[in-house]
Amino acid sequence: MHVALGGTFDPVHDGHRALFERAFELGDLTVGLTADELAPDTRRQDRYVRSFDDRKRDLDGELAPLSAEHDREYEIRELTEPTGIAVEPGFDALVVSPETRPGAKRVNEIRERKGLPSLRVEVVDHVPAEDGDRISSTRIVNGEIDRHGNLTPGREGRGTSRPDAE
Question: Which of 18, 86, 156, 157 has CB atoms 3.0–4.6 Å from 107's, for a disulfide?
């Protein structure tokens, strides 16, 4: 089975790891990593997003050991459209989080129009942080939690603009 998964992954956290784990349980993985131009449009809150190259390096660092552990292949590709790579032929499944489930429906509608089979949609629940709220990149960037969901009182966040723009 070939699995698609997409996101900005800035920073990668345990919620993302749950998505990756499920994807590798299903098969080989292609990750669509949002392009620099698309990344700001995917945020629910305005904040600085690191460069594609920096995010890709960190994502590769997370995926490499997981792929070896599951004896699976993976590839990271640039995502320039919200529906991304999943509308292309060659995929069997799409792994999503609960808030991106509507996007999976849209992907399958596009695939149907193209004459492609629908993807199996796997929804992976959020991973809770220490305080019971979900782990999110925004919470990490804001300094509320670390990438594992541990509360980080007194830690300053990254902010909404590039560090060199201030």
Answer: 86
Cut 0.70: pTM above it = yes
Domains, the chain: 2-127 (3.40.50.620)
User: Average pLDDT in the 60-80 region?
Assistant: 97
Inter-residue contact 14 to 135 (CB < 8 Å) = yes
User: What tokens were used for 69?
Assistant: 């552990």
The three-class DSSP label of residue 14 is helix
DSSP string covering 55-115, please?
A: HHHHHHHHHHHHHHHHT--EEEEEE-STTGGGGSTT--EEEE-GGGHHHHHHHHHHHHHTT
Residues 23 and 4: their CA atoms lie apart, in Å, by: 8
Which stretch of DSSP H or E encloses residue 16?
A: helix 14-26
